[in-house]
Write a structure and sequence with these properties.
Order of helices and strands: HEHEEEHEHEEEHEEEE
Distance between the termini: 127 Å
Radius of gyration: 33 Å
Largest sheet: 6 strands, mixed
Number of helices: 5
Length: 253
């Protein structure tokens, strides 16, 4: 009897040891698999994060061209080009800046920007280019048009400007004609998009994305609108040009 009891106890002990061995093996498999999955998941997250950061960094580099949107494509617009800053020093009202970019998206400029109140300037207004460039530094969008933009497009631009909000100003470019048969150009500080026709959708889209940029996003070599959000300047112009002093009275030309 004692012998049978001992044998039974030995078998039970062996079964318990085998059960514990299986439980340890199962735990190792479970924790090992979970650990492997955690490592794989962490690696995937790191890869995606690095890829996302790299992509974001590349889109902020000078020379990068964003693909045109559907609205921009419909208006025969290029993608938006990131450009290098060309200066931001103030010049006096009698100084002319020789801009390397046509039209400029940055550069030295008049100390007094154009006022907020006027959104469109007529072709023969003679408005000062250097003042408009100062508006770019304040986070405005300038819609430049040259002498070859058809008259019906100019009329459309005037209507678009009236509806585009207080951070958009349409200004005639009188120093040359734009290249590639694109006679309407949108600029924000360090960004340029050239268009074949005036499109309200393309303008509104550009203004929404690039006016008053967040200074926290200035992560490339060229700063983003260093005085973003600042207001316009002196209301000493009309859509027909600068106001002039005549015998002490302010009159339109």
């Amino acid at each position: 009897m004692a012998k049978k009891t001992a044998e039974r106890n030995a078998r039970l002990e062996a079964l318990r040891r085998e059960q514990k061995r299986k439980e340890r093996r199962r735990a190792i498999l479970i924790y090992g698999t979970a650990g492997t999955l955690a490592v794989v998941l962490l690696a995937v997250v790191l890869i995606l994060t690095i890829s996302s950061n790299h992509k974001a960094a590349s889109t902020h580099k000078v020379g990068y061209v964003a693909a045109p949107t559907a609205a921009a494509t419909a208006a025969n617009c290029t993608g938006v080009l990131n450009q290098a800053q060309q200066g931001q020093t103030h010049v006096t009202a009698d100084q002319t800046v020789d801009y390397k970019q046509t039209p400029p998206s940055s550069g030295n400029h008049d100390g007094d920007p154009l006022p907020d109140a006027i959104r469109f300037y007529n072709p023969d207004s003679g408005i000062r280019i250097e003042r408009a460039v100062h508006n770019l530094e304040h986070g405005f969008v300038i819609g430049w048009y040259d002498s070859k933009l058809p008259s019906d497009q100019i009329t459309q631009l005037k209507n678009v400007a009236a509806a585009a909000g207080s951070r958009f100003i349409a200004v005639p470019w009188t120093r040359s004609d734009f290249a590639d048969n694109r006679h309407f150009v949108l600029t924000a500080w360090d960004r340029t998009q050239r268009c074949g026709t005036v499109s309200s959708d393309a303008v509104f889209e550009f203004v929404k994305k690039y006016s008053n940029p967040d200074l926290e996003g200035a992560t490339w070599d060229s700063p983003t609108a260093p005085e973003s959000g600042a207001s316009g300047g002196t209301l000493d112009v009309t859509e027909n040009g600068p106001l002039v002093m005549n015998g002490g009275d302010t009159t339109t030309p």
